[in-house]
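Notes from the pairing session

We agreed to fold both candidates in a single pass and log them together. This is the raw record for the first candidate, unedited. Please don't reformat it; downstream parsing expects exactly this layout.

Candidate A
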Amino acid sequence: MTDVVALKRPEPETSPAIPEAQIDWLTQSILKNRFLPSPDPSSVFVGDGDFRAVGAEFLGHFIRIGGLPLHAQVLDIGSGIGRMAVPLTQYLDPAKARYCGIDPVVDGVNWCRKHISSRYPNFEFRHLDIAHELYNPRGAINGLRLSLPFPDKSFDFIIMTSVVTHLPSDEVKVYLAEVSRVLAPGGRLLMTAFIVDDIAARNRYGKRDPRLAFERNGNGPCWFVPELPPLAAVGFENGFLDRALAGAGLTVETRSFGHWRGTKAAHYQDMFVATQGGFA
């Protein structure tokens, strides 16, 4: 079973917006639809795994775990080359929903504008020139001075998949403060991460992803993989992200551990769902 910690009892609004059978049908149809845009598999922005399969899987998580409504105003922080956006085009209501993706890598933004926005006008992509030592080393915006280019309370669902896994702890707090600012009351954040607790650190079950042999960085909350650049994969001590979310005024609703740590789970990375001001 997936190791899920339910921190509050969900209200009815957290139930999936469509029936389980329809979620399964939707994700399968996305996998089979050869007309949906897909980037060149050799693209450095695609990331691990099959582009279409990972996107379809996460759409299921957004609906089942995050309670993503059909009419949501969605912000995708770190939208990359559209891995989350493409399946969302098949789910979000084209008349009522809005999607905005932001990313520091301009090539990914341009690909999404050409191949997604041109077909789905309610999908927008913006280049945000945030400096990052791996993905955008010449960026003009220091991550500690991040200001999302949106008014307060603009979105009711925010996605951060594989974002804090590449950020230092002080920048994580800045990002979450901005998420809290642009998230409407009752809105939700779905965020993935690597939580390094005793099970993960000691590889207690001997099945942890061998690529993620994290070691603690001094006395701070970050854990890095020794043979990789520090921000290639960042883990955080158990409890840090909970405190960071609470410090930003966000209420952790669900924390679900992933199978990277060697335990059975329906998803790879650890996953948080947090709400702005509690449930809507």
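Candidate B (folded immediately after A)
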Amino acid sequence: MRVLGRVTSINVRKVLWALDEMGAVYDREDWGLPLRDPKVPEFLALNPNGQVPVLVDGDFALWESNAILVYLADKAAPGQLLPTDLQQKGRVLQWLGWQAAELNPAWGYAVMALQRKTPGYDDPQAIAASLERWTARLDILEAELGRNGPFLGGSVFSIADIAIGLSTHRWMCLPADRKSLPAVEAHYQRLLERPAGARWMSPATP
């Protein structure tokens, strides 16, 4: 298998973490600006969106990081990264969808302003509003982990923990005052105890 994408991408690191949990053998190729422009015919033939990551497994190519996580979980030993119980599986898929649709969009402006220092993202009110939205989403996660932890699928680690863990890592690396979220922080520490979690939630890649 090959993973096309730069390790500074949170979505690429989802895939790499899952592969390491599987003990899979894979190669990674740097794609994505500023390293290598994906808007070229070679890459667009694999992902017409011109975005990373792309997983290439033999003659099969797949894009969208959460879809790749599900594919890899089904490719691994049954139940290793995605529960076989229908209700538990549904809960894991619920959190994957929530991470992409609700959690990640909330942090956009704050991350661009405070972590990436991107020119033009300097409106204090917009930063505050982004942080407020982000905190509100994490309050939902805090309540869920407080009720049903230690992992998002219940008692077993899953691909939902990979996706949410990397999002939490971004929060924990934020150079700003943050609300105390004990259950979220405990979940984060549990993930850091996993070798793959420690590798892909490095302070160098928030």
